[in-house]
Design brief:
The complex is a heterodimer.
Chain A lengths: L5 E3 L4 E5 L4 E5 L3 H12 L3 E2 L14 H11 L4 H7 E12 L38 H13 L3 E2 L2 E2 L2 E4 L9 E4 L6 E9 L8 E13 L3 E5 L14 E5 L6 E7 L6 H18 L11 E11 L9 E4 L4 H20 L9 E6 L4 E7 L9 E2 L6 E2 L2 H10 L4 H10 L4 H9 L1 H12 L4 H19 L10 H12 L5 H14 L3 H8 L7 H14 L1 H8 L6 H11 L6 H14 L2
Parallel strand pairs in A: 16-17
Antiparallel strand pairs in A: 1-13, 2-3, 4-13, 5-14, 5-15, 6-10, 7-20, 8-9, 8-19, 10-11, 11-14, 12-13, 15-16, 17-18
Chain B lengths: L30 H10 L5 H19 L2 E3 L3 H16 L11 E5 L26 H8 L3 E6 L33 H8 L5 E6 L5 H7 L2 E4 L19 E6 L2 H11 L36 E5 L9 H16 L3 E5 L7 H16 L17 H12 L2 H14 L5 H24 L2 E5 L15 H6 L5 H6 L3 E9 L6 E9 L4 H14 L8 H4 L5
Parallel strand pairs in B: 2-3, 2-4, 7-8, 7-9
Antiparallel strand pairs in B: 1-3, 4-6, 5-6, 5-10, 9-11, 10-11
Classes of the chains: A alpha+beta, B alpha/beta.
Protein name (chain B): Glutamyl-tRNA(Gln) amidotransferase subunit A, chloroplastic/mitochondrial
Function (chain B): Allows the formation of correctly charged Gln-tRNA(Gln) through the transamidation of misacylated Glu-tRNA(Gln) in chloroplasts and mitochondria. The reaction takes place in the presence of glutamine and ATP through an activated gamma-phospho-Glu-tRNA(Gln).
EC number (chain B): 6.3.5.7
Chain lengths: ~575, ~525
Amino acid sequence: MSLVLFCLKSEALCAVVDLTGFLLVSSFNLSDLLNLFLRKHGVLYFSTKSALGQTAAQEKQHTRMKVSSKLDSVKFDEISKNYEVVIGIETHVQLSTLTKAFCSCPYNYGAQPNTSVCPVCMGLPGALPVLNSKVIEYAVKVGLALNCRLSLSSKFDRKQYFYPDLPKGYQISQFDIPIALGGYLDVDLPVEFGGGHRKFGVTRVHMEEDAGKLLHTGNGNYSQENYYSFPIGIVDLNRAGVPLLEIVSEPDMRTGIEAAEYAAELQRLVRYLGVSNGNMQEGSLRCDVNISIRPIGQLEFGTKVEIKNLNSFSSMSRAIDFEISRQALLYSLGQADEIVQETRLWEEGAQKTVTMRKKEGLADYRYFPEPDLPAVNLSEEYVNEIRDSLPELPEMKRRRYENMGLSMQDVLFLTNDVNVAAFFDATIATGADVKLATNWIMGDIAAYMKNEKLSINDIKLTPQELGELIASIKSGTISGKIGKEILFELMAKGGTVEGLIKEKDLVQIVDPTEIEKIVDKVLANNPKQLEQYRGGKTKLQGFFAGQVMKETKGKANPGLLNKILLDRLNSKS
Amino acid sequence: MLSSAQTTPRLLRSPTTTTAAAAAALKCSSQILTTRKSLISRQTSAVDLAKSFLHRLRRTEPQLNSFLYVPPDEAVLKQAEDLDKKIKNNEELGPLAGVLVGIKDNICTYDMPSTAGSKLLENYRPPFDATAVRKLRECGAIVVGKTNLDEFGMGSTTEASAYQVTANPWDLSRVPGGSSGGSAAAVSARQCMVSLGSDTGGSVRQPASFCGVVGLKPTYGRVSRYGLVAYASSLDVIGCFGSSVADAGILLNSISGHDKNDATSSSREVPDYASQFLEIDDLESKPLKGLRVGVIRETLEDGVDLEVISSVRDAVSHLEELGCIVTEVSLPSFSLGLPAYYILASSESSSNLSRYDGVRYGNQVFGDELNSLYGDSRAQGFGSEVKMRILMGTYALSAGYYDAYYKRAQQVRTIIRNSFKEALDKNDILISPAAPSVAYKIGEKKNDPLAMYTGDVMTVNVNLAGLPALVLPCGFVEGESKGLPVGIQMIGAAFDEEKLLKIGHIFEQTLQGCSFVPPIVADEWTP
């Protein structure tokens, strides 16, 4: 089953490719030949004359031009004065279970197409789904973390629609009884965007399976294979059957920033819980945004538009602000009827949303209970066990850090990454001063990680040693400057503070007589500068201090040094 | 007590109760047990046995068309040779060693095509064996071929197969029943010893009745559905055909049990069904003393052929003479079963058949856009009965109709399940005919789907309630030279197959004067 199948629509030519080699066949009897060859080799393919659906490029040009050209003139402040914005978000979180939701195939992002498939996730006749119990565990964790009510008895349903990436013709999902309902998510907005705390409602959390992926070629979407000049649909079912949680928010967000922060908080949450890597680029966290605006005072809601293809929080925020402006402009031009219920794609390059497909009424998914799977029953004990095992969540951490006296900027930085927070917690557990630990982590450590593109788990420095470092500086064993030098060594190579101090003979000189000696020596060696100083050029104090530091390899206690230096400099004048 | 039949029975041979001793001639009616005995005693070899069955299969197949696929003789004989070597070396033999099995073609086999009777799966070869088939092979059974069926199991005559029409071995102008018509005909005509079928609304039991063989529909969840091409998942079960109750029971024994690949399979322990097939010598005079048998009143009323009624009433009298306490029970919800069944089965099938979209198997019809690719591939791939059920099911599940159809049918299902539960709390088994008529003519109901659906009235309730049921031949009505067999249906409580098999076996062993070997093979078949 390692082959990928594809095909093309051309009356005169057809080609069949697998990933290990490829074969090109010419024939006028395309369908027979393809069926024969492809089926024999287990390749999945479909072909149509036109590309699937309407693509962004096909969208009506005139609307787009008109709107985008005038967009800049619409001031955002004015919009918020005149319009009420309503944003709701549907988030799909891919769960990082070892195996798929209903079969024992592993899922590895980026694997060769169709190498992680079996009769179950390929939807072969006679194959049946069997639920991976980890999916329930993860769903319960997320439900509890989102302050939801859990359904102690829920079930799976089939959501039915046709698409080549959906091998069974239905998606196993949850419809009327989701596993978790009615929760909320606490968010602290970034200080640079004005800050503030928000509580966004969560309507529901339900379990479902992911679909496969379509890789288009022939129209440029799949660059690796575009030696075809006609559309070919390639189906990769590696992702089919991977467990997802769909988390639906209440329409509580009002700005792009709020929406992006809601999504970022969800990402933090699933990472804290260890149920997903939350990676947006890999599609482990996918947000679809629903957005409508209405002039303040208008009773009926505006038309809802969905935005997809949001690959980062910043594109989410920008896409929403663009869409708000677009809709506001149409209102202001008296063209509100051009806002239609549709799905729009965010185009990162052009920084705008474009029509992907228009929705003609409501899709009828003909949901009904999945007869192949028994009901999902949770016992109170099971739920309590999971509740007791939950880690400290971002919101709890933020409040705790806040109570330690840290600024919101510091709090947000430290809690953003669960591993950084853990590092911080472990550091202060050694008795290290909270503010000092924060400064080290947010300052030199963060800068180092950024430069070296490392995560906090990749650096060799341990929280114990950072605690030790802080203590050594505080006790005066080493100077802050030396501390900084040691820090880089610890991050790059590891080792202990104590060892490094010994090894490099870095213990700070705190003996005044010793410092006096060196100061005297420096003054003696620089008579010219001394004269200048005493002639009024007091700025030279820094020069002398530097010389002393140089002489002591930075080990002189700076306070002591300055005191003695000043004494000496001024005493003989 | 039942009043005796109102009409004069027109049986060609009436079944009569006999003393235990007089029935001794019928003992060892089990082909599986006989095969085992003769192989172990070296009276016959597995190869000779296989050859004789293959020979009969090849001879009768042109008239019957029971099989959609029969592997080359060598493939079958090779397995028999291997078995003979094992016997020679005194190696341990599986419980089904040398048993020749037919498999309904909607049950996946890795070494043979599995088409489910549909053009959409023409030449489709699954990469795996269904769990039931795997277990059979592990027990030593040899698969002799894939049997014909109504496309995806949707039909009651096997005429809806995309490939061929199977004839009833008792009368070649009649249908074998369906949808497991091929499996029933094959066992009836001794083309194989036993066979697997599937039963969604009666697809094992009705053809068993039409073909004069034993058909066993196990409790839902008793046998894994993994590898059974789904028709209606909440109703589908794999069932057993045999020429005796013992064979059906032994077959069930080998395929039952929990399967980690089927979340709806039960983890209840499997009793040893085979242990109870006592030889007739061991029977007491009233072997079924004290067993409570409830005859379902609604199944012996209008709409059921009089000859069928009288045959079943005679069989009930027979049970009484064996010591059963017979009462009549009423299940007022019985008639609701048929509409509820057709709504639920169609709804689930409309979903289960969505996967046949032309992308992975079946002929892909090239389209200008995706919807026409799907539409045309499916329009050309599915037969009309399947299309009708997909349409019905799609309608029943559509927004605005769901509550009126699917949801109400589920409510009816609950009522039916409860009424059966209540009746079975008071009775050990319930009795009804297996079908309202005997086998009818090919083509007779082809253009009258409602008439065909009505024929499922006896069986669908059992699927809705998820219960086990055993159908076994109990008599004949007039027909061609030898008459046409009538089947009686015994319904048991969930997971009480053991009791059904025990009663069925004793009934069968004490039924005198009926030989259920069809004319097409009567000359050469000696039980």
